[in-house]
């Protein structure tokens, strides 16, 4: 993409129409018609979020009929997971809950890093992609190439190369009329939809500062099993490797960054930041290479700021939220609006965005209505990558320069197998490299 494309994309995607929730997304075209009233689903990745999304997709028809009189069905017909033994346990649970008729995956459970192609090639209407972020761009591209509708969890990539790939595949999805849902579920929650609309309508005047947080405890780690290759170990511990997860700012804090950008109706043009890994896994660099804390100052094109805190620290201050400051008041986005004059307004509306985003997508598919959330999924991911690279390098970085020259963290990823040497390996002391601010270089 040239510089004009990048700037145009940043402004266009930030507009309230495209950045709005799927429930209010403008249905600009009719999507591809389904072959029948049964939506046949392939799941790529059956970890916690993947199995959660599949459960919600299987539950959706019951509530759509009750709430809207829509009669349809969903069925799981293929699964791919890097570790199929783990997936099989989840599938057994699905069979008990939904019955074997709706869980028709006999002989269609595929393992390994490249098993996604076999699952997508089955007779399916929709693909759920809930794999580590580093693998999502090529899986999304492959699904769109095969003419499948997609639900993809956030973040949609771990680096700039992946973001570019998702944006290009999104263009193809639009040309083919293929629905795309992205797992930024807050955009499907009434409380956020209502609040963002009020803020954009001027409830607190001109918004001149945003504060966003994802401060929590630690994360899981899985010991290396006998006979595991280094790639198997890293894929099984994907969160701890930047090439696979994008770091905590991408994997979790993206939710809060996305809300800030949605409120502003634009994406940042530059960022500076700081961070480190002192307490990650007790400071043991043999177990993890990502930061345990980041702070980013983002700047929008109107020169307003968004301050971002992301952290994993057991025993520390926990906060997961978004706040806006305006010329006429402040807002705790999921809770209340506090005007400088007058009484506070409590935020109302249902939560439950994980389930609602699946109901919205299933309803649109059934009706032949089209929407595509891939662009803002990609640009919110890019915002997280921009912040990470600013923290890793200790430098101020512009969005345009990063979009053009950002590093590819996993070159050749399409050809990875469990026998491939991963993009990072431990040194002679068994320690993984951790980015050093002031030394790390963010550009290729």
How are the SSEs placed, and which strands pair?
Elements: H1 3-13, H2 16-19, E1 38-44, H3 48-68, E2 73-80, H4 84-98, E3 109-110, H5 116-120, E4 126-129, H6 136-145, E5 149-152, H7 160-176, E6 180-182, H8 190-200, E7 207-216, H9 230-236, H10 242-245, H11 248-251, H12 254-264, E8 270-276, E9 293-299, E10 305-312, E11 319-326, E12 329-332, E13 336-339, E14 345-346, H13 353-367, H14 374-393, E15 397-398, H15 399-405
Parallel strand pairs: 1-2, 1-4, 2-3, 4-5, 5-6, 7-10
Antiparallel strand pairs: 7-11, 8-9, 8-15, 9-10, 11-12, 12-13, 13-14
Helix pairs in contact: 3-13, 6-7, 7-14, 8-12, 12-14
Describe the structure.
By secondary structure, the chain is an alpha/beta fold. The chain has two domains: 3-187 and 354-372, Rossmann fold, CATH 3.40.50; 190-349 and 382-411, Dihydrodipicolinate Reductase, domain 2 (2-Layer Sandwich). It is 36% helix and 18% strand. The chain has 15 helices and 15 strands. It has helices at residues 3-13, 16-19, 48-68, 84-98, 116-120, 136-145, 160-176, 190-200, 230-236, 242-245, 248-251, 254-264, 353-367, 374-393, 399-405; strands spanning 38-44, 73-80, 109-110, 126-129, 149-152, 180-182, 207-216, 270-276, 293-299, 305-312, 319-326, 329-332, 336-339, 345-346, 397-398. It has a nine-stranded mixed sheet with strand order 14-13-12-11-7-10-9-8-15. A six-stranded parallel sheet has the order 3-2-1-4-5-6, with helices on both faces. A hairpin with a 2-residue loop joins β11 and β12 (329-332). α7 packs antiparallel against α14 (374-393) and α8 (190-200) runs parallel beside α12 (254-264). The protein is globular.
